[in-house]
Structures are given as C-alpha cells and as structure tokens.
Amino acid sequence: MLHYNEHKINEGEAILILASGFAGDIGKMNFNQKLHRFEHLTELKPTVKTNAVHISLNFHSSEDIAVPKLQQIAAAYMDKIGFGDQPFLVYRHDDAAHTHVHIVTTSITAQGSSIDLHNIGVKLSEPARKAIEQDFNLIRAESKAFKQEAGIKPIDPSKVSYGKLPTKRAINNVVTAVTRDYKYTSLAELNAVLKGFNVVAQRGEEHTPMFQNKGLMFSLLDADGKTIGVPIKSSAFYAKPTLRNLEKKFGRNTEKRKPHKESLKQRIDLVLNSGKALNKQVLETELKRSAVQVLFRQNDQGLIYGLTFVDHRNKVVFNGSDLGKAYSAKAITERFSSSLDQGKRTYLKPQQANTYLPQKDLAQSYLTPQPTGLMEVLLGKTDQETTTGLPRRRKRKKRKGMSQDNSLTL
User: Fold this and answer.
1) Contact present, 71 and 17 (Cβ < 8 Å)
2) Is the pLDDT of residue 44 over 80?
3) Tens digit of pLDDT for each residue in 214-271?
4) What confidence tens digit (pLDDT) does each residue in 103-120 have?
5) Which ranges constitute the DSSP H helices of 229-346?
6) E-strand stretches of 186-303
7) How far apart are alpha carbons 155 and 259 in whole angstroms?
8) DSSP H or E stretch at residue 366
C-alpha cells in the first residue's frame, strides 16, 4: 500500500498532504523510514494477518476541495473510526475524475493490541462519512445533487495513439483502480469493467505458451473496441495484477458482492417494469441513470447469448444468469421481442381492435402534413379525423391454418 502511493508521487499523480504519528520531518523521510514506522507496530503482534488498512475517501466531481480542508476531513474521519491515535499517511491523488485521498495506516496499536476491523465499513465508516458530509458541507451521497460516477478516468485512445499520454501509466491507473475496487469473479467479468475504461486483459490463444503458463497482458482499446499499441505484461505493473493473483480474488469476491445483489436487481426491475418499449439502447440508457452498465455478448450472427451487469455504485459485477432466470440473456431478449411486438401497433380507436397503423406508414405520416395531430389519432376521434391522410390497407384474405399477421419479429 505504501509502495503504491509513493509510486504515485514519483509519477506526479499524487502528493503527501498529511502525516500523523511520525516523528521528525516527514518531507525528508525516505520510503524505508516510512515503512519502518508501520512495521515497528505490526511486529508487536505478528499473529495478526490483516494488520494494515488502506482507505479511500472520494468526493463528488463538482467539489474542488483545498488541501487544508482535505487534511481536516481526513483527520476527522480517522478519529471517528477509532484510528485517530494510529500513525497514518494521507495522499491526495490526481489520477481520477474527482478529488480523492488515500490513507495508509495499521490496525496494531502501540500497546500491541489489534483494532477490530470486522464490519468496520458498516459500523463506523458509514456513520463517519455521513457526519463528515454534514460537518464540512459536502455533497451528500444520498442527496439529489449527487450523481453516481465510476470515478476512474477512461483512457482517451486518441491521446495515447498520438503519443500524448504514456501507455503504461494510463493502463496502470485504470487496472490498479478496477482490480482493487470492483468485485468480479472471473476474467470475463473483470474485462466487463475494464472495457468501459478502454482497457482489456488478454490471455492469448489456448495453444500458446502464454495461455498455458497463465500469462496475462493488458492492452488499450480504440473507439471501436479494437486493441491498439503494444500489450503490456501484468507483471510489469506495480499492483501485480497477474492471473494467479486475480484468481485469488475471484473466490473472495463471490462472497463480497452478495450484499449488493438485491440492490442491483431492484434497479434493473425498475427499468424492466417501467412500461417502456425495451430494446438494447433503451435498456442501456435507462440503467445508466442508476449507475448500472449492461454489456451484451453476441456471436458473429448478432445473436445475444449473454449479459453482464456492472454496478458502478457498489462496484460489483454480475452475469445476468447469476442474478436469476429473469435477468438472463434469454429472458431479457424475450422482453425486447414482447416490447417490440406491442410497439408495432398504434391503435386508432378502441372499437376497431383489428385496425392498426404499420410502423413504416406511421413514419411516413410524420413526413406528410396531416390535418390531425398524433394525440387526436391516439385518443380515437371521429372516423373522418382518424383516417384523413392515412394510407388504406387492402384487406388480406385469411388463409386456412394461418393467422392474419404472419410476419416474423426478430
């Protein structure tokens, strides 16, 4: 954790804004001196495996918070979660679309005891966050003014391709933040998040030595989703997002994402049950309002065979089938067909149940000046009003064994 934040300083993407519990001039301390301060405490109780804490405090992108205020916020937060007497370092990072700070500390006290970390997020961190938002007049996460954002800067492929942005640094910023913050249970789910920031993880072809040796490389994606530039080995990044390290997270993340499953389903249900005619674009747009990204997996023929939902609010990833049958690709695409089938008919009058305006004729009616408005058509005015300007359809003879409308809806 210390190495990650210090490396950010060396890359010009972070600054150390506060050091608490360190003797001497922190500005003159090197990496090993800072590390030794923490190790001195962790050695007091070597039986504790989770003895270090890495905290990220994130603020809304509309808030430009000066360093003195960030220092006060960080100190207040550490007091409220019971770490006020612990040594800690606070770094302001400038690698995302919003102001945020990282705090590094240890849970081992000077007396050799261990601070309880179980459910600290729910028990202490959440109440502290809400109190600080009020005390420092910050935008509250539950307020209407708050707009949920992913918080990671997507890479601009045009800047990279023209050499304006170092490729490795750009990929590193995205990969480090995503692999650290999101809960994914497979490489495919990880890629569902990464692709939203124009990065992809690749194992290579199955018959290659790289695949067989569990190698992993990261590449940039252009505006069309195609890889560009030279891929970079996972071992070359400081966070070491190798496949073996990622696989260790897959199992743990299965449990960690469970508390957020119902919240995601509820937001999807609001869109599915909104009464709107659904298609891919509508589903994507409406879910985005609730900080949910949906990705469609399609074969070469364009058939949708899988769905992945990325919840940027809670930073979890679920395949549709993992949420339940109602959220699988089959169930969702059937809703598309149903919605399209319903939307295909614009009824003119309640008593004329078999009379409808074909979609192509409806489009033409917008182009041809009509003596009546669309609302009059939908509300079922007189015969003269509803039929003026509308092309007549020849009555088709009903064949035995066939329905009147035998068109195929895809």
Assistant:
1) yes
2) yes
3) 999 999 998 888 888 889 999 988 789 999 999 999 999 999 999 999 999 999 999 9
4) 999 999 999 999 999 999
5) 243-256, 261-272, 280-288, 320-323, 329-343
6) 199-202, 217-221, 227-233, 292-298
7) 30
8) helix 359-367
CA–CA dist 264, 254 (Å, integer): 15
Closest CA to 238 of 163, 169, 166: 169
| CA 308 – CA 84 distance, rounded (Å) | 41
In this structure, which amino acid lies at residue 32? N
Q: Provide the CB-side half-sphere exposure for 36 (13 A, CA).
A: 7
Distance CA 34, CA 188 (A): 38
The pLDDT assigned to 155 comes to 67
Burial (CB count <10 Å: 0-12, 13-18, 19+), residue 108: buried
CB atoms within 10 A of CB 407: 8
* 307 sits in which H/E element: strand 304-311
Q: Residue 159, class by beta-carbon neighbours within 10 Å (0-12 exposed, 13-18 middle, 19+ buried)?
A: exposed
Q: Which amino acid is at 171?
A: I
CB-count exposure of residue 83 (10 Å: 0-12, 13-18, 19+) = buried
Residue 362 pLDDT greater than 60, yes or no: no
> What is the full DSSP assignment across 43-105?
TT-TT-S--EEEEEEE--TT----HHHHHHHHHHHHHHTT-TTS-EEEEEE-SSSS-EEEEEE
CA angle (206 as vertex; 215, 244 as ends), nearest 5: 30
Quick: pLDDT tens for 321-357: 999 999 999 999 888 866 554 444 333 333 333 333 3
- SS3 of 408, please? coil
Could you report the per-residue pLDDT of 124-181, keeping only the tens digit for each? 999 999 999 999 999 887 765 555 555 566 666 665 554 445 678 788 888 988 998 8
pTM for the predicted model, two decimal places: 0.54
